[in-house]
Amino acid sequence: MDGRAGAIFEPSTDGNCDFNIVLAQASTLLTFSSVCSEQYSCRVGNNVIINDDRWNSGTDVWMSGGGDLARYRTMVINHEVGHRLGHIDNEMTCARGGWPSGTAYAGAVHIFGWLCDQRISA
């Protein structure tokens, strides 16, 4: 990776990692922590846990808003890894309708596509 965000990501085969990305069945998410739910992906300590049900189908909001599965997968990895990197601003709402959302904004829940919807603008 190119490191533009101040980090360089490299796969590891020796187990010496700063964090792990786990694809987990929805029914097992609560075994990671009570802060997780069967509905969404989450981050617990050094584990970025991706909900397998969502990985395979996206969310109703995302798909009905014109999103596709490949872009959903990119968004959810960016969003949850962003949490692991300490970015808490990826939960903030958009400045106004029609403006671009944040890079890792929780699009599965709040936006349609990559632009903020007028109905949720501040």
What does this structure look like?
The chain is α+β, with helices and mostly antiparallel strands and about 120 residues long. The chain is built from four helices and three strands. A three-stranded mixed sheet has the order 1-3-2. A hairpin with a 2-residue loop joins strand 2 and strand 3. The protein is globular and about 40 Å long.
Q: Mean of residue pLDDT?
A: 75
Alpha-carbon distance between the two ends: 35 Å
- Count of domain modules: 1
User: Over the alpha carbons, how many angstroms does the gyration radius reach?
Assistant: 15 Å
Tally of extended strands? 3
Summarize the biggest pleated sheet.
3 strands, mixed
Tell me roughly what share of residues is in helical segments.
Answer: 25-40%
Gross morphology is: globular
Strand content range: 5-15%
Q: What string, H for helix and E for strand, traces the elements in order?
A: EEEHHHH
Total helical segments: 4
Task: Classify the secondary structure makeup into a structural class.
Answer: alpha+beta
Uncertain runs:
108-122
Q: Can you list the strand order of the major beta sheet?
A: 1-3-2
